[in-house]
Amino acid sequence: MNDFVFYSPTEFIFGKGVTDQVGEHIAKRGYKRALLVYGKGSVVRTGTLDRVKKSLAASGVETVELAGVRPNPEVGLVREGIELARKENVDVIFPVGGGSAIDCAKAIAFGVPYEGDVWDFFSKKATIAECLPIACVLTIPAAGSEGSSSCVISNDELGLKRGTNSNLFRPKAAFLDPELTFTLPPYQTAAGVTDMIAHVCERYFSGTGSSSLTDNIATGIIRSLIDEAPVALAEPENYEARANIMWAGTLAHNDIAGCGLSATPTSRAGGWESHALEHELSAFDTSITHGAGLAVVMPAWMRFVWRENPARFLKFALQVFDIEPIDETDEAIEDAVTAAIDELQAFFVDLGMPRTLGEFGIAPEDVDKLLSTLKANKGEVFGGFKKLTLEDAKAIYLSAF
User: Fold this and answer.
1) Contact at 8 Å (CB) between 239 and 15?
2) Residue 40 pLDDT exceeds 90
3) Is the pLDDT of residue 30 over 80?
4) How big is the chain by its Cα radius of gyration, in Å?
5) Which of 135, 39, 140 is nearest to 93 (CA)?
6) What share of the chain is helix, strand, coil (3-state, %, to 5)?
7) DSSP-based three-state secondary structure for 68
8) pLDDT at 293
9) pLDDT at 66
10) What is the mean pLDDT of residues 64-68?
11) Contact (Cβ atoms closer than 8 angstroms) between residue 298 and residue 201
């Protein structure tokens, strides 16, 4: 186990009906005026937004609203939110929704005290030094943004999708009510579960260490998701399934599944290769759901890199799928590793996720466009488990058709 620093300052308020308790918690923290950030209607149609506003109002917290956050949130709305937050003198940013709403809110929160353009943080021209506090109501378990140090924003003008990391914008409080997820469409549920598993795998395959305890936490999260996701799809109002999935999404991305797996104590474990490859897909076509893109890209990445450390993949195969090689020959090891990757991809497909890039309407001739923005984001060489060149990335993309 490598040295590590684990930091999780978020207060998680989890359970039935916690949506109606937001006001007392926010008022207790001394906040007086909240900017509510949400998407394009689902939280309105389901009544969730009204419940949040009613609870806040009952506790004396005033609200201002910013609606219209799309999947793969765009920097233009972030800029609007920054101006609105300044104009209205809000003292807390309060997203109601999934990872897109929360990431948009995070960018607003660290953009408000900054005198330059918020995109500077994503183009590495500036470092986050200040941030308004954030609290959130989670409605779509997937991104883990309710407890993470990650924020990903798209820039349509530049054709880029980039992330930044800071402990300063981890939410102060996150309200997790599994009943809010009963109405999620099956595709969103499936894409969310896929994203959670990818968050775990990015850390598990860091290439820089292992820990039996952390490995058991990581693979336990994956096994729970494999167990619970089919139940949630078959029985959308099964509270136990929804609750386990919701909490798994938080644990998958609050860094507990990577403790001891990073070469640098203060850095997040993993090279995040699959996420880098997928971000170019959903930047190229913003209608592509992030989790769905990962369902295609991550197995392709695994097949390309496993020979770099077969023992790590064999441990994954055993811990997640109880797959072992029949003997110690190279052929048996390859069969076991390949079987585990196939099992993982089959699970994604059984949930309703795509298997190939062609299912998104992407053609092989589009790959060079993906590589152009990948180079702008990651440079000529990137990755942790195995260093990837742009030619390697091209081979991974093409293998996914």
Assistant:
1) no
2) no
3) yes
4) 21
5) 135
6) 55, 10, 35
7) coil
8) 97
9) 97
10) 96
11) yes
